[in-house]
Amino acid sequence: MPEPAEQSTPHRSQQQNLELRSTSEPLELLDHTGHVPDDGGSPAGASSSDINSTRTSLALFDTDGPADKPMPAISLGDHDQIGVIALTSNDAPAAAHTLLTDHGFWRPRGVFGSILIHDRYDHDVPARLTRFLADADRQGIGVEYHLPRIFADAGSPAAGKRVEDLWRDNQQREYRRSQREAVRIATSGSDLESLAHGLCHRLPGEWVSCITDFADPDSQLDFFDDLWDNASLASAWMQFRVPRAAILTGPNRLELVVIDRPLHRGQVLVGARSLHGITHDYFGDDNAPHAIAVPAEAVRAAHTVSRRLLPRYRQAARRLRNP
User: Fold this and answer.
1) In sequence order, what are the beta bridge partners of 295?
2) What are the phi and psi torsion angles at 175 (to 5°)?
3) Cα 125 from Cα 104, distance rounded (Å)
4) First vs last Cα of the chain: how many Å apart?
């Protein structure tokens, strides 16, 4: 992929360390390799081969029985926007980690650090998951799941609650942590309106701009589906509070999204917005025209965007419009 994800980074040295108290055994999330991650900082938002995630310990409520009931090696839950999310218990065998990665579970850019997912929107996901469960059974690896949108036999609600609670708590804690960052951005970030105006006058073709405010985290997350990126912009969007964005609309209805780059004063992230009227898995697209970081100064930013981002954006748009 042309552009690396944010380093240290939107997904950060700010990797979440959650410790939720309950009566059940703690769960450990997997990194992209299928192994329990080591302690330490991580450039999450980076791709599969360059991530060393921080350890994330979670103790979630087990609604299936007493507190001393052992967790299954693997728990699966289905998120309506993200896909199938997999978690492993602390005592899961190495074979469970290998099994997940062998069956297509992966750690995507733009999703909280130590979560493996399987894209539910792929047409053959039910068949793939059926084979996964069969292989787990043959290897004696315990799997508990709640996948009502995929299987007629929905499975255990406890597994679904475990995954749902994890995802919600990750989001809530990250947003609370990022409130101070949002204030810093709002008070010392770039003048997005002036920058967007300057970019419109310097990018090739006719461009217009507007500023979109995200008054609360829900409105920010709702806009996430409009991004065509699975690198630095998507990482920042999911990991940090983004109070506002500049939307630039240019020739052929191409749109750019500009935000202040988290943790980097004097820089902005510029990325692509999904195409109007074309249904596509924009988030999971490995050929997405990945966002770039540029100085928050119109002349230099316009030069870099014109040279590096716009050619990729136009090429990717042509592929979708003329398959």
Assistant:
1) 267
2) -70, -40
3) 10
4) 21
